[in-house]
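Good morning N.,

You mentioned wanting to compare the apo and holo forms, so I went ahead and generated the holo version with fe (ii) ion. This is what I fed in:
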Amino acid sequence: MSSAVVAGTDRTRFSREIAALNMKPLWERVMRLGAGTAAVPAIWRWKEVRPLLERACELITATEAERRVLMLENPALEGTTFITPTLFAGLQAILPNEVAPTHRHAPNALRFILEGEGAYTAIEGERVMMRPGDFVVTPGWTWHDHGNVGTKPVVWLDGLDTAFANIFGAHFREDYPEETQSPSRPEGDSAARYGANLLPVDRGAQGHTSPILSYPYERTRAALEQLSKNGEPHPAHGWKLRYANPVTGGHAFPTMAVFMQWLPKGFSGREYRSTDGTIFCVFEGQGGVDIGETHFDLAPRDVFVVPSWEPYRFEARADCVIFSYSDRAAQEALGFWRESVL
Ligand code: GTQ
Ligand code: FE2
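and this is what came out, ligand included:
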């Protein structure tokens, strides 16, 4: 018997012996050590999802469901409820006269409004009306409820950083004693204090998350359209801006970076990858995206996920406006974030 075989047998016996004491030899580990995650590219097409939201509306009330949400779970992360290892995505629908009751939780949330007018979210006593294309902020641990005072269903994309709270063992949540909060601050208060390129002179917001509760679509779109007339687009991103916390100049959330980009008709992007796993939502236009070996045709309100470090590239058949959020803010804060234009 060669000494290598003897060593092999000895090592196997050793591994078995230490396993009983909850130890494993590092030289035998088989886990992934390269960039990227287990998540795979996936798309949720509005054409298919919209009728299912309608059926959910017939099956359960918003109050009974607490939130009438269809979770977008990554097929490679079954059982987690997450779309990437760090982020949650869901599609929420609320019918006229419905209320989604008040609660609060450690995770931060964003809303990107897809369809309908007349719904509001109330955050710490301030009502914020939601319109298609708006990006609305719910900072962690703030009381929030939603309602629809309009005449049609309203649908939005929810993005939450739930997995961070879970990992740290810091996921707290609680219900408010009443279904809805009584308004304690006038509508438009946070927009006036923080949303006009002005800030309170004295001590204002101190939180980790943007005090601007709503970033209206009209202004975001106008900025991008103006940019698209000036100079050349980025080879991979077209014209892309990030939503900022006006107090810090940083990302809107401590964990999630949030973006909107404009791809001009005929745009054929360079391949790009970065370590942040990203959820995209097409708001306007038609086109396509290649993610690794996968191709998705894109239409308005389609949601798709580009996992960490997967190369992807865009094509636009019409002017496209595309919303996205990712865990880039957390990665930058912790020194992990990397990108490359391929
Ligand atoms: O609207 O408060 O999709 O707390 C998941 C958790 C939405 C919400 C979700 C939530 C909410
Ligand atoms: Fe919530």
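The mean pLDDT is 96.

Happy to go through it together on a call whenever suits you.

Best,
F.
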